[in-house]
Amino acid sequence: MSTAKTRAAVLALVTSFALFHSPAFAQMDHSKMGEMSPASTAYMQAMTKMDTDMKAMQMTGKPGADFALMMIPHHQSAIDMAKAYLESGENDPELTKLSRDIIAAQEKEIAFLKGWLEKNAGK
């Protein structure tokens, strides 16, 4: 896949992500979206879980702590979506590499955020 096609695919994913988090999407009749693949269903489930977890988050009033707390479910959603792509059976080398890179980077960042929260819990 060319760089342009990869950029287009990433743009489509980002646009979908933004759409699915909009208030208008919450009010849409999802039955009219057509058949979704198991991977697409997993993407939606990951975003729904992230949204639920983030909305349930108890804010501390501390910008750093709140940022770290909110980023953990956000990053976990990216991991879950990347894993769903890898499990989809589609074998695009660029998206496969991107998915693996996302998993590695987001897991590292989640570990950092959890460590930061432990060190800074009382601040």
UniProtKB/TrEMBL annotation:
Q: Where is the signal peptide?
A: 1-26
Where does the DUF305 domain lie?
A: 31-117
Coiled-coil annotation reads none
Pfam families per UniProt? DUF305
Q: Which UniProt keywords apply?
A: Signal
Can the keyword Signal be found in this entry's annotation?
Answer: yes
Gene3D superfamilies recorded: 1.20.1260.10
Q: What is the protein's given name?
A: DUF305 domain-containing protein
User: Origin organism of this chain?
Assistant: Mesorhizobium australicum
